[in-house]
Amino acid sequence: MISSLRGRLFTGLTIFIVGMALAAGYLAYRWAFDEAIELQDAILLQVGSLAARNHLSTTLPSEGNIDGEAQVLIEEIGPDHSAADRVNSISRLPSDLPDGFQTITHSGTQWRILVRTRSDRSRVAVGQPTANRDEVAQDSALRTIVPLGVLIPCLMVLIAIVVDRTLRPLSRLAERLDAKQSDHLEKLPTEGIPTELLPFVSSINRLLERIRTMFDAQRRFVADAAHELRTPITALVVQAENLEQADLSQDGRNRLNSLKTGIRRIGHLLEQLLTLARYDSNLSRDKPDGEFDRVLKEVVANLLPAARRKSVDLGFARIEPVSVRLEPVALTVLARNLLDNALRHTPAGGQVDVSLFVENELVVFAVEDTGSGIPDADLDRIFEPFFRGSRSRGEGSGLGLSIARRIVERCHGGSIRLENKPTPGSGLRVIVHLPGD
Questions:
Q1: How far apart are CA 22 and CA 19, in angstroms?
Q2: What is the distance between the alpha carbons of residues 299 and 320, in angstroms, rounded to a whole number?
Q3: In this structure, what are the phi and psi dihedrals at residue 105, rounded to the nearest 5 degrees?
Q4: Is residue 352 part of a domain?
Q5: CA distances from 312 to 315, 318, 327, 418 (A)
Q6: Domain containing 258: what range?
Q7: Residue 129: strand pairing partners
C-alpha cells in the first residue's frame, strides 16, 4: 500500500486518467472505424450508379498514388458475359442476388458488394474484399487515437509536476522542522502556507510552545538545583580539608581520599550542569568577537601538566589567527571540554593533535586523539546529556560534549561532528565548523 500522499494522489489521478483515456480511445476507434466503413459504402454506391449508367465491366483504373486496397471491382451479372469479360473480376456471381448492399462469401473470399439493375434488366455488381475494407478502416481509426496515445504520457508528466508543486509547501514545512535544532523552538511561519495546511501548522506551533515551556522549566530546575547544591558541597570540601589535619589511621586516610574524590566529582558535575544551563538558556545572537587562537593556546597550556602526567603528547598540528562570533568564555569552555575528553580517552604514550585554521570561509577546529574511538552504536547518542558511552574512562560526567554542542549551535551555521579514524581503534576525530568573523 502506498503511504506517500504524493504517491497516492499521483496514482489515483493516473488510474482515473488512463481509464478514461482507454474508454475514450475505444469509443473513438469504433466511431472512426464505422465512419470509414460508411464512407466506403458511399463510394461503392457512387461507383455502382456510374457502372449502371455506362455499362462498365472491369477494374477502375488506378493511376497515380491510389492504393490497391482502395480499388473497386465491377462485375456484370448474367449468363451472357464470359470470363474474358471479367478482368480482375469477382468471378461468376449468382444471378439471383438481390439489389442493394450485401456481404457474401464467394470463392473463399468475403466481399462487400452492391448490386444494381438497369432499365434494360441487365445487372451489375460492384464490390471490394471485406479484408481490404477493414484494413483501410482500421488504419483510419488508429490514426484518430494516435494523438490520444501521445497526449497521455505528456499529461502524466504534467500531473506529476502539478502534484509536486502543490505539495511543495508541505515538503518545505517538513524540511524546516528537520532543520530545527533541539534548542531552537521558534514557531513556524504561516506566510505563504496553503489554507488547508494552516490548522496543521498552528497545531505544530502550539506543540512547540508547550515543549519550549517544558524545556525552560527543566533548565530552571537544573540550574536552581545545581546552584543550591554548591553551598553544601563547598562545606563538604572544607570539612574534608579539616579532616586531613587530624591524626587518622591509614584506613581512615584511604577512606578520606575516596570521600574527597567523590566530592570533587560532584563539584565538577555541578559546574558542568550550571554551564549547560547557562548555554541552554542564553541564545542571544549578539555576541562579541573572540580570538579563538589566543583562547586555544591558553587552554592547551593549562592542560599540558595533565597531559605530561599521563605521558600524552599534546600539541598543535596547525594553528592560524582566527576570530569567531562567540565570547571568549564560551570558546574556553568549548576547547577545554573537547581537549579534556580527548586526554581522558587517550592511553599513556598516545598523542592529541589540535588544529585551528580557515577553510572555505569557515573556521575549522579539529581535535584528533589516538584512543580507542567510539563504537558506531554510540555515535548517534554521544551528544546526549549524561551519556558516557560503553568505553567511558575517568571521572567524566557525560556533559562535556553536550555543552560543546550547545556552544557550537549558538553560532548560526556552526556544526560539530565526531568520527572514528579509518583504522579501527586508531582514535577519534572531532571537527567543529564555525562561521568566521
A1: 5
A2: 16
A3: -110, 120
A4: yes
A5: 10, 18, 29, 21
A6: 195-278
A7: 111
Q: Are residues 245 and 304 in the same domain?
A: no
Q: Is the dihedral of CA 100, 103, 106, 111 positive or negative?
A: positive
**Residue pLDDT tens, the chain, 437 long:** 556 777 788 888 888 888 888 898 889 888 988 888 888 888 888 888 888 887 665 544 545 555 555 667 787 876 555 433 444 455 567 777 888 888 888 777 788 888 888 888 888 888 888 888 888 888 888 888 888 888 888 888 888 888 888 777 777 777 777 666 555 667 777 776 777 778 878 888 888 888 878 877 777 776 677 667 777 877 887 887 787 777 778 888 788 888 877 777 777 667 766 666 666 655 444 556 778 999 999 999 999 998 999 999 999 999 999 988 888 888 888 888 899 889 988 999 999 999 999 988 899 999 999 988 888 777 778 877 767 665 555 555 667 788 888 888 777 778 888 888 887 767 899 999 998 76
d(CA 435, CA 358): 9
CATH of the domain at 205: 1.10.287.130
Distance of CA 262 to the CA centre of its chain: 50
Cα-based torsion angle of the residue sequence 228, 229, 232, 237 in order, rounded to the nearest 10 degrees: -130
C-alpha closest to that of 54 among 72, 76, 85: 76
Expressed in angstroms, the distance from the first to the final Cα of the chain is 52
Q: How far apart are CA 343 and CA 336, in angstroms?
A: 10
The DSSP letter of residue 59 is B
> Of 293, 407, 348, 268, which is closest to residue 301 (Cα–Cα)?
293
- Looking up residue 356, the CATH number of its domain turns out to be 3.30.565.10
In contact, 127 and 106? CB cutoff 8 Å: no
Both 274 and 320 in one domain: the answer is no
Structural domain count of the chain: 3
**141 shares a domain with 17:** yes
Are 336 and 292 spatial neighbours (Cβ–Cβ below 8 Å)? no
Domain membership of residue 168 (yes or no) is: no
> In the listed set 152, 177, 210, which residue is the last one of a domain according to the structure?
152
Report the half-sphere exposure of 209 (CA within 13 A, side-chain side).
8
CB-based contacts of 387, cutoff 8 Å, min separation 6 = 378, 381, 398
Q: Are residues 261 and 331 in the same domain?
A: no
Q: Does 91 lie in the same domain as 62?
A: yes
